[in-house]
Amino acid sequence: MVRELTLIDALELQKTKSHTLVDVRSPKEFEEATIPGSLNIPVFSNEERAEIGTLYKQVGKQEAMDRGLEIFSAKLPAFIAEFRKIDTPITVYCWRGGMRSKTAVTVLELMGIRTNRISGGIHTYRKWVIQRLEEPFKPELIVLNGYTGSGKTKILHKLMEDGYPVIDLEGMAGHRGSIFGQIGVKPNNQKKFEILLAEKLDRYADEPYVFIEGESKRIGQVHMPPLLFEQKEKSPQWIIQLPTKVRVDEIMSEYEPTERPEQFLEAFKLIKKRVHQPIAAEIESDLENGRFAEAVEQLLTNYYDPQYEYSVARFAVTGEHVIQVETVQEAYEECLRRYKELKK
Question: What is residue 118's predicted lDDT score, i.e. its pLDDT?
Answer without folding.
Answer: 94
